[in-house]
Specification:
Layout lengths: L1 H10 L6 H8 L3 H8 L2 H31 L5 H17 L2 H15 L3 H10 L1 H14 L5 H19 L4 H5 L10 H17 L15 H9 L2
Helix pairs in contact: 1-2, 1-6, 4-5, 5-6, 5-11, 6-9, 8-9, 9-11
């Protein structure tokens, strides 16, 4: 499966053929159909295996926080617990990074197979985290917390993908580097602050205050 994983990470599901996978794995194409039933089921098997490991670790960390605090959990602790398994995966080496890139495809491309995998693997545990954030942030609407959870997911997928944008955007004065612990800390601080920000009024309430400039314009039109 490692051969398929690296190809899916590089070329995407639709850009990878069964023949390419078989050649990289030095096996006959028929064996892939025999053991996995085809490319789609191979992709699903790879994604489920890694995805469920992440979910399992997330729930272990969340359950430990619930046992420790016996009530509302500090927001930064919830955010760090959600992000930590992904950062640990990146530390694990090339296969970990390959799955992170596959994950980014699944979250960003419009495809029913991807939708079903996301719902099957991630939805329940992510809803558990949203529930804990709601308990810890009673002044923030559930709508805002859900929006902010989606922003969190987008941020970590982008930052873990090693796109080296920090170097480009700083004219090569700064490098993101490969210190995953630093990335985790910076992301946790950034996301926790956003999670705790005042709830958004949408659509915005238009001000009815009459300013001096508005008063002068009104007088001139009379």
């Amino acid at each position: 499966m490692s051969a398929a994983e690296s190809l899916f990470a590089r070329s995407g599901y639709f850009g990878t053929s069964v023949r390419e996978i078989a050649n990289k794995a030095s096996v006959n194409s028929a064996l892939i159909s025999y053991y996995f039933g085809g490319k789609e089921n191979l992709f699903r098997t790879i994604f489920r295996k890694q995805g469920m490991e992440i979910v399992g670790k997330r729930m272990e960390l969340l359950d430990a926080l619930r046992a420790r605090f016996k009530g509302p959990i500090p927001v930064d602790q919830i955010v760090r617990a959600y992000l930590s398994p992904q950062c640990e995966l990146k530390k694990s080496g090339p296969r970990g990074l390959a799955f992170i890139r596959i994950q980014a495809q699944v979250h960003n491309e419009f495809n029913e197979m991807y939708f079903s995998l996301r719902r099957e693997i991630y939805d329940e545990s992510t809803k558990q985290y949203i529930g804990e954030l709601e308990r810890s942030l009673p002044g923030i609407s559930l709508s805002d917390i859900t929006w902010r959870m989606m922003f969190l997911i987008g941020a970590y997928l982008y930052m873990l993908a090693d796109l080296d944008r920090m170097s480009d955007l700083s004219d090569h004065r700064f490098e993101q580097g490969d210190d995953t612990d630093e990335l985790l800390e910076r992301l946790t601080i950034f996301v926790s602050s956003g999670m705790s920000a005042p709830t958004v009024q949408w659509p915005p309430v238009l001000s009815t205050t009459v300013t001096p400039a508005r008063r002068r314009r009104a007088v001139r039109t009379k």
